[in-house]
Amino acid sequence: MKPCPFIAVEGAIGAGKTTLATMLSDRFDIPLLKEIVEENPFLDKFYQNIEEWSFQLEMFFLCNRYKQLEDTGLQYVSRHQPVISDYHIYKNLIFAQRTLKGVKLDKYRQIYHLLTEDLPKPNIVIYIRASLETLQKRIEMRGRDFETAIDPAYLQQLIEDYETAFAELAEREPETTIITVNGDEMDFVEHPEHFEHIVRQVKELL
């Protein structure tokens, strides 16, 4: 039996993950799983002092995403019902490996692998690749106060981390189909034809 679609949309901060995931959810009429971001009580402190608050921030995200995906497995995947999310759990390692060091990183990796080893994994991932300039414009447009403190150097490093991580993900999970969207050239919000191009790519896999 062909596995039921579990689609994840990914990309660095400001890439447009939630926007695209919501648009696809509406188009294909499938449930949307949205990550918790602004509800994280450590975000403001993290962007002011990354080293001091990174472990608390990453653990909050990990535990919340674990719970969401555990519920998703029970509600949709195990019942062969399609679902789309605006994140892949693998992103937790992308961020943690950038912000955590030494013993804290080792502990985090152990907890991550323990929690995620039996979670449902997306079989289709849409990766929005975008430059620093594009991300900064989109971050400014959505106007989240806590994101105004993001260091451009941190954001640029995150872009590079995502590139490395998705190359690794393609090797680690060869059964996962990755669709790469050029976020600098494609504006799926302002240009309907750009969104339709993505829709056609997803339809071919469905």
From TrEMBL:
Domain Deoxynucleoside kinase: 7-205
TM segment ranges: none
Originating species: Paenibacillus physcomitrellae
Pfam families named in the record: dNK (PF01712)
Keyword check for Cell division: no
CDD domains for the chain: dNK
InterPro entries membership: DCK/DGK, Deoxyribonucleoside_kinase, DNK_dom, P-loop_NTPase
GO terms assigned for molecular function: kinase activity
Kinase listed as a keyword: yes
Protein name: Deoxyguanosine kinase
Source superkingdom: Bacteria
Gene that encodes the chain: dgk
